[in-house]
Design a protein that fits this description.
Rossmann fold, Alpha-Beta Plaits, 5 domains, eight-stranded antiparallel beta sheet, six-stranded antiparallel beta sheet, 14 helices
Length: 599
């Protein structure tokens, strides 16, 4: 009975209590027995539990008997809250008819609350606002209710005030879901259309697609087709989440479940794709599909060369579960063999790095993150590069375009000045400001992505004592006055230390690199020149002095010419040595340089 199905998701800013509310709903509907209950039951990864952030979306079906005596089937889709995973959130929203918007009573509305709310409104979802954490001493539910009321135009007294942790008033939320969210539309007799809102890899069943059936039915004996990747498959099993996977005979229009496809990589079964029947395909795909595009690039190298194969295997296994991770082999003179990897954002990069170190026990070096630039050459061709090493010769370049982002910062008004200062330092352009509440300001900037990825967020948090929050999305590519800063050691360029920076910052950055390297490169038997160059000229230089033997030790007294003769002889020897000598840069020097920006 479609009238008794409710599909909804929970949206909120990071750490406002999404997963905790999901736990309470599962308990109240007896979906999970008390003895199996644990905190954040839908967050299955250790990393998710530690950081308190949902990284993968998950789904669960609950059966609930409402106060009107009817039984309802509630499908909850738990979404990630972090800005890096906003595409996954948009697909999860497309699979629902309604959304619960949680706002923390101690923090009020924040940047991602708004970003996810606007996404939900664009998907035409029914929004049920909820104020959480009223059990905390610093909670101010009345003020938060007024903020929500100003934003959504609802009566502040009608917003449920709950404590998901203590379980206060959570039953009100269940009643509102049944009452306010409409049942799904869809016709079982039409050609099958099902939206994939997430996928994961299982070593026995292959790729498991999390689907919301829009039209038609899916049964185990059908041959299914992925409309974007054109892959055909016979499902290994279909079923529902309760919250463990439970096989069923069929999924009908309006239902949420999973299809074990037997496919070998997540690439063939992308989030946002439409599944249809191979025999009677649907006329068109469901809207909104796009390929997840990496924004931040970094090189990942094994510390020990013999771990190269292990690193490749680990990345391949991670890619089975995470289709948005891109990688290809690359070599560097300094760090030998490794991979150039593309990530959705900095948080995604941090997660991948931690998973490689933890789950696969690898020691890795990650180079400084860079972004994708568009380079227009004088002959009119445009190439995209994601590493400074790929930048062509300067004489052939007409212009370099860099990605700019739209940045929204939400903060208490008292930090207005320090946020302005930070944005200005990072080449940000102020666009507009709004005051959603008397003591809160939303500031809108345009800012280059390259400036955003080097611990902008950390600095924002420390300047505002943790109160500010931010959200960003891709805006456009703009021509910029950019140059490549290269580091030469003993006249040889070191590719792993090259960066692309704004012309005004080139001198400062070059000096920093040179000063740091001077203290890290051990002294050799000959002078070593460390230079930074930009636009074809040297902008900074330092010398690492040679180690010298005291050749005058046996020369007591005597003529100055005798001393000079010995010193000249030593000088010639050093010069000859310099011609054949090469400088090994120790691994620690690289590690320290890559942490340069963090100081």
């Amino acid at each position: 009975m479609k009238e008794h199905i409710r599909n909804f998701c929970i949206i909120a800013h990071v750490d406002h209590g999404k997963s905790t509310l999901a736990d309470r709903l599962l308990q109240l509907t007896n979906t999970v027995p008390d003895r199996q209950m644990m905190d954040q039951i839908l967050d299955s990864m250790d990393l998710e539990r530690e950081k308190g952030v949902t990284i993968k979306a998950s789904a669960v079906r609950m059966n609930y008997t409402a106060k009107d005596g009817r039984d309802y089937e509630l499908n909850l889709i738990d979404t990630p809250g972090h800005v890096d995973f906003s595409y996954e959130v948009s697909r999860a929203l497309a699979a629902c008819e309604g959304a619960i918007l949680i706002v923390d009573a101690t923090q009020g509305i924040e940047a991602q609350t708004l970003a996810n709310l606007y996404m939900a409104l664009e998907s035409d979802l029914v929004i049920i606002p909820v104020i959480n954490k009223i059990d905390l001493p610093s909670a101010d539910p009345d003020k938060t209710a007024k903020e929500i009321s100003d934003l959504l135009g609802v009566d502040p007294d009608e917003i449920p005030r709950i404590s998901a942790k203590e379980g206060w008033n959570v039953d009100q939320v269940l009643e509102l879901i049944v009452k306010m969210i409409p049942p799904p539309q869809g016709d079982d007799s039409k050609p099958t259309q099902a939206l994939i809102f997430d996928s994961e890899y299982d070593s026995y069943k292959g790729v498991i697609a999390y689907v919301r059936v829009r039209e038609g039915i899916i049964s185990p004996n059908m041959t299914l087709r992925m409309m974007a990747t054109k892959a055909d498959l016979k499902p290994v099993e279909i079923g529902i989440f309760s919250p463990a996977m439970k096989p069923v005979q069929q999924l009908t229009a309006g239902e949420v479940g999973y299809i074990a496809t037997g496919l070998k990589t997540v690439k063939e079964c992308r989030v946002g794709d439409t599944i249809t029947s191979a025999l009677e395909p649907a006329a068109e795909m469901l809207p909104g599909y796009k390929k997840a595009k990496p924004m931040v690039f970094a090189g990942i190298y094994p510390v020990e060369g013999e771990d190269y194969d292990d690193l490749r295997n680990a990345l391949e296994k991670l890619q089975l579960n995470d289709a948005s991770l891109d990688f290809q082999p690359e070599t560097s003179q300094a760090l030998n063999f490794g991979f150039r990897c593309g990530f959705l954002g900095l948080f995604h990069m941090e997660i991948v790095q931690e998973r490689l170190e933890r789950e696969y026990d690898l020691d890795i070096v990650v180079t400084a993150p860079s972004v994708e630039y568009q380079v227009e050459l004088l002959n009119g061709t445009v190439i995209t590069i994601d590493s400074p090493v790929q930048l062509p010769d300067e004489s052939t370049i007409k212009e370099i375009r860099e990605p700019w982002m739209k940045l929204e910062i939400f903060s208490p008004v008292e930090f207005y000045g320090t946020i302005m200062d930070l944005a200005r330092k990072r080449r940000g352009i102020f666009v507009s400001e709004e005051y959603p509440a008397p003591d809160r300001v939303q500031m809108n900037f345009e800012i280059p992505l390259a400036e955003l990825i080097v611990n902008f967020f950390d600095e924002l948090k420390s300047r505002t004592r943790g109160y500010a929050s931010m959200d960003y999305q891709m805006y456009e590519y703009r021509p910029g006055n950019l140059v490549k800063v290269e580091v030469l050691v003993g006249g040889e360029p070191v590719d792993a230390l090259a960066t692309i920076v704004h012309k005004e910052d080139a001198y400062h950055k070059g000096q920093l690199l040179v000063t740091k390297l001077k203290s890290l490169i051990p002294r050799q038997m000959f002078d070593v020149a460390i230079q930074a160059s930009a636009s074809g000229r040297i902008i900074s230089r330092a010398n690492v002095k040679a180690l010298r033997k005291d050749v005058l030790a046996k020369c007591y007294g005597g003529d100055i010419t005798r001393k000079r003769k010995l010193l000249e002889k030593q000088k010639r020897g050093k010069k000859r040595m310099k011609m054949v000598g090469n400088v090994e840069i120790p691994q620690e020097a690289f590690m320290a340089i890559l942490q340069l920006d963090e100081e």
